[in-house]
Design goal:
The structure is a homodimer. The first copy, chain A, is an alpha+beta fold and about 375 residues long. Chain A has two domains: about 250 residues, Creatine Kinase, Chain A, domain 2; about 100 residues. Chain A has 15 helices and ten strands. In chain A, the strands form two sheets. In chain A, strands 2-3-4-5-1-8-10-9 form an eight-stranded antiparallel beta sheet. In chain A, strands 6-7 form a two-stranded antiparallel ribbon. The radius of gyration of chain A is 21 Å and the shape is globular. Chain A starts with a helix and ends with a helix. At the A-B interface, helix 10 and helix 14 of A face helix 10 of B.
Amino acid sequence: MTPILNFLIPTTDACRRSGPQDKIVFSSRVRLARNLRGAPFPGHAKKVDRVKAFDQLMPAVSRLPQAAPDPYAESMDKPTAQEKQILVERHLISREHATKTAGSGLVLNQEETLSIMVNEEDHLRMQSLLPGLQLHLAWKAIDEVDTCLQEQVEFAFHPQYGFLTACPTNLGTGIRVSAMLHLPGLVLAEQINQIIQAVSKLGLAVRGLYGEGTQALGNIFQISNQQTLGESEQEIVERLNKVVLQVIDHEEDARISQLEKRPNVLFNQIGRAYGILSHAHTISSNETMNLLSLLRLGVDLGLFPGTPRTLVDELFLLSQPAHLQLGRVEKLDADHRDVVRAEMLRQRVKGVSTPDHTKTTAKTESI
Amino acid sequence: MTPILNFLIPTTDACRRSGPQDKIVFSSRVRLARNLRGAPFPGHAKKVDRVKAFDQLMPAVSRLPQAAPDPYAESMDKPTAQEKQILVERHLISREHATKTAGSGLVLNQEETLSIMVNEEDHLRMQSLLPGLQLHLAWKAIDEVDTCLQEQVEFAFHPQYGFLTACPTNLGTGIRVSAMLHLPGLVLAEQINQIIQAVSKLGLAVRGLYGEGTQALGNIFQISNQQTLGESEQEIVERLNKVVLQVIDHEEDARISQLEKRPNVLFNQIGRAYGILSHAHTISSNETMNLLSLLRLGVDLGLFPGTPRTLVDELFLLSQPAHLQLGRVEKLDADHRDVVRAEMLRQRVKGVSTPDHTKTTAKTESI
């Protein structure tokens, strides 16, 4: 096992971690963008400057008390392309960072709740990632990291504009607060576009599973702040938290109303999803995400007694390309991957009880 | 129970009847069109003439030794609309005959192998319907009926043109020979259009499940003769029989080659069909036909050990609208019917063993 694969938490354990509201909120994330004073941004820096920043930041970051004990701390030329992809699939690094090699680095704590990218778009991209809805806690954690680092290095800071960043959309607080939500009820009730519009009007962005420009596969939506200027970090976190709580309410209402008004449509979609997942012999990543979303909804509605939600969450992760490739010598092409994915799903979904729509009588309690 | 429902063979028994080549050939049918000499065709006849023809023909037809013992023999105003639809779904009467009322009649033997429509488009439409590939036997059976009737009534016959019929496409022999084939292999291999073209060039027609102008749902195709003039009945039957045997060979080759070249595609389609049929909560008639076709193919390929093909054949029948309505007081609309159909399928498909693609090792023997 290579260092990073050895370091990462097994998927089963990773998906078993719970948090408040985790029926609807997969995770909460707060990240800060920071840059060294007087040093060119990584995208514009010459190699020597990038290495200088790397050499200054990596030791400081690795020794952070918040990363202890024994964090993973390596240059980005260490993990293979596949390993980097695994980190992307677990939301521990950005897609952009996965393209980096020597001169960029990653520091990760053992719990995988703290991830710090060195020389991504900014010198530092620091994120706190927690299960369920824990935006305040995530903010607190990353704020401590930030405070701690500011005692050791000087960040580029303008008295009027705040923290300077490579991209102006991060200028000021350099904060991006986001929550990953599972909203199948709103999608089935065809209310999702309304919600997206309402949330957008509040100056928040709604995106797909892997952030900017990605599709909302599996009915998974990321809500994040757009503005980083003119508002304090606390205010941004609080505002997002409030909106997420409202969206959760709407999602719960949508589920109850769908169950009451169109139970057959709901049972039909969930049942078919279960039937396909347990019997397909080739299945794409996109179709899998959408079917797993319905399976997860079924678990939430009590249709699969005895099946924990975490089992479905693990399937979301294990269905991703790099996770499928894990432990296989031959490189899977897309067609072969679809076959391997179907095989994995057939085997795992055996562990899911067959759907029983009569078990939803306790629906309001369950929701 | 009304007379006709009481008379009909239960679906389970009806589908259990077997015949040669019935893995690929559902049924063989030979029908003759005949008209009374000197009497106007039913479509042009005044009521009094139609009743006259009816009164002359019904007693003769009912007393046919080939219809004995105790045939069903009734005027078409006796069965309800739903009962007529059941007769259509079982291929015992034409869609056109289902619209007829008083003045038209039906005689059916107990085995449902002989069905004679009085005052359909012609005064007599007599069909012999046998399971599997038994075109010669079906011809022999209906020829005997014809001979027997000719001793009692005089048919419109022209020395040059042969038997006169309401529609010129039936002129001459008045014969329509057809076989109903299940060709999922040729459809999956995308060779079906080639086969249809080749068969058409031989002067034969390829149609869907319910004859002229209907879609080939469930990969079911009807092959029949186009010409009724210039060839003897024996020649027509023999020619069709030969072509059907060739199509059977092509279908078997296509199945073997798909299994060898694209096993995952095959297992995928069959597995998904099984998964959906056993877990859907609403399903249309068309989708059902197509999925049942794949299930039947799976049974043929040995993927469902212990599941008889007849179980699938019964589901084909039970999924039809009028059969679904059977035994229900409230009239089902289309939406409700889709729910009832899904419910019936979920319950029945429980009796099918779960698919096991490892069981296809004996594939060549199985085919």
